[in-house]
Amino acid sequence: MAGAAKPRNNQHLRTRKDLLLAAARLLKNGRKPAMDEVAEAALVSRATAYRYFPSVESLLVEAPLDGAVPDPEMFFAAESSHEPEERLDRAEAALHQMIYQNESQLRMMLANSLADRAAESSSDAVPSRQNRRTPLIEAALAPARQRFSKTSYDNLRAALALIFGTEAMVVFRDVVPLSEGEARKVKSWAIRALVRAALRESKSKA
């Protein structure tokens, strides 16, 4: 049963991604599409579209942001450094800039996903958010993957997910608070500290 859950979740994520891509294409026509139009363009039913997004507004808030996130393969295509600290820091800097430039929309998207999560009653519920940060983190770590033990790598990837993304911006804006520039410096420091700790742990277990 556990093995079947991941493929099913991957299919959910692909369907959600298809809806976002379809909405983004339709938005480029210069008008707001209806959910029926987005569903048709994504080759899914209207009912399926509403399973993933409770309203067309929530879909249209997220669609433009989906394309603004750096594509991992393209982002690192010309990268010469194989050092995980440098690659991760560069990737987070790009994501950081995108997030602060789109703060209002991202806060709306976060609010929608939290509301959806609170309403979920099934463990097989469709994902309320698209995981964009993990592929970027994994691409940054790829050249140095063998330097980490499996446990250290998994822990590092999970810890970095707390630094990459909208939630960190909310913490630095609303809780700490820090300016955009100060927040970037703290995140850069945290990335380097986490990578070094994971490398030390990996060496001690070798």
Q: Could you write a compact summary of the structure shown?
A:
The protein is mostly helical. The chain has two domains: 1-68, no CATH class; 69-206. 71% of the residues lie in helices and 0% in strands.
Walk me through the structure.
The protein is globular. Helix 1 packs across helix 2 (35-41), helix 1 (2-27) crosses helix 4 and helix 4 crosses helix 7 (103-119). The chain is mainly alpha-helical and 206 residues long. 71% of the residues lie in helices and 0% in strands. The two termini are 34 Å apart. Mean pLDDT is 87; it is low at 1-5. It is built from eleven helices and no strands. The chain folds into two domains: 1-68, no CATH class; 69-206. The longest helix has 26 residues, at 2-27.
**Structural class designation:** mainly alpha
Output the helix-strand order: HHHHHHHHHHH
Treating each run of at least 4 consecutive H or I residues as one helix, how many helices? Answer: 11
Can you summarize the main beta sheet? none
Oligomer: single chain
Distance between the termini: 34 Å
Number of domains: 2
Which stretches are poorly predicted, pLDDT < 50 over at least 5 residues? 1-5
The tally of beta strands, per DSSP, is 0
Helix content: over 70%
Residues in β-strands, percent: under 5%
Envelope shape: globular
Q: Return Rg in Å.
A: 19 Å
The average pLDDT score comes to: 87
